[in-house]
Amino acid sequence: MPTIITRGAASAQGFGFAAKSLAASQSYTTAGTYTWVAPAGVTSVSVVGVGGGGGSSSFLGGGAGGGGGLGYKNAVTVTPGSSYTVIVGGGGTYGGSAGGCTRFNAVVLANGGANSFCRTQGGSGGTKGSTACGGGSGGKGGTGCECFNSGQGGGGGAGGYSGNGGAGGNFNSNGSNGIACGGGGGGGGGTTCSTAAFAGGGGGVGLYGKGSTGAGGAAGLYGVGGGGGSGGCGGCVLSPVGQNYGGGSGGFFSVGQSGPAGAVRIVWPGNTRQFPSTNVGLP
Questions:
Q1: Region of poorest pLDDT, from 176-185, 194-203, 257-266
Q2: Do the Cβ atoms of 26 and 95 come closer than 8 Å?
Q3: pLDDT > 50? residue 18
Q4: Computed over its alpha carbons, how large is the radius of gyration of the chain?
Q5: φ and ψ at residue 261, rounded to 5 degrees
Q6: Nearest Cα to 201, choosing from 237, 174, 148, 162?
Q7: 258 within 8 A of 210, measured Cβ to Cβ
Q8: What is the pLDDT of residues 29-47, one digit of tens each?
Q9: Mean residue pLDDT across the chain
Q10: DSSP H stretches of helix in 126-236
Q11: What is the C-alpha to C-alpha distance for residues 283 and 281, in angstroms, rounded to an integer?
C-alpha cells in the first residue's frame, strides 16, 4: 500500500492569500500499478525509483540474480488534481520474468535486475532508466559451481544514487566448503562469505537520498549482503533473498529464489527537494 507523509495542512483562511503547499511525500513499495493524484498547490515533484531485484537459479551450484537499478528525476512538472501512473517493478522469478521496470508516468526511472538461469551465469544488473537524470546500475549476480557441496553465487547489490551496486561474489573453490559473497547495495562493493548451503542476497538501497555507501557484512557462517545507501538494508542473515529495495537474490541449493520488488518515492515541492541531496528526507 502507498504511504503518504505530510507536515500538516496549511490554512490561509482570513489572510487573503493562497495556502502554501508544504513538504510531503508518498511512497509505493509493493509491486503493482498505482494512480497518484497531485495535491492542490503542487506543481513540481522529484521522484526516485528502484527496479525489482533479479531471481536466482534453481540448479545445484546456483547463479545469483542481479540487483535492480536506481534512477531519479527532479523538478518534474505536474498539474494539481491530475492523475499520474506509478509502476513498481516486481522481483524476478526463476523461469519467469526478470526484475520489473519502475516508472513515474512517462519517466522510466529504473530497470530490474536479470535472473540467473544456470550455475555458470549470474544475472546482469538493471540500469537506471533512459529518462532518469541520475542514479546507478545494479550489481551483477555471482556464479555458482556444482562442486564441493555445490557453491552458490551471491546476489548483486541494488544501484546507488551516485554509483553502481556491488557485484555478488562468485563461488570460490577452496577445497572445503563452497564460498560465495553477497554484493553491497547503494554503490557499495563489499563482500561476505557463506557456506555452501546458500549465499547472501544483495543489499538493497533506500529512498531518502544519498547516504553512506554500502559495505559488506562481517564474515560468518552465513552470507550477509552489503548495506544500502540512505535507508537501505543489508542482505538477509540466514536467507538468500535480496533485500528491499532492489537487491538480487543469492543462490540457494537447487531452489530458485525470487528477487524483491522495487519501489517509488515522490517528494514535493520538487523545485526545492531534489535527489540525491538529503533534503529529500522525511516528510
A1: 176-185
A2: no
A3: no
A4: 19
A5: -70, 165
A6: 237
A7: no
A8: 999 999 999 999 999 999 9
A9: 74
A10: none
A11: 6
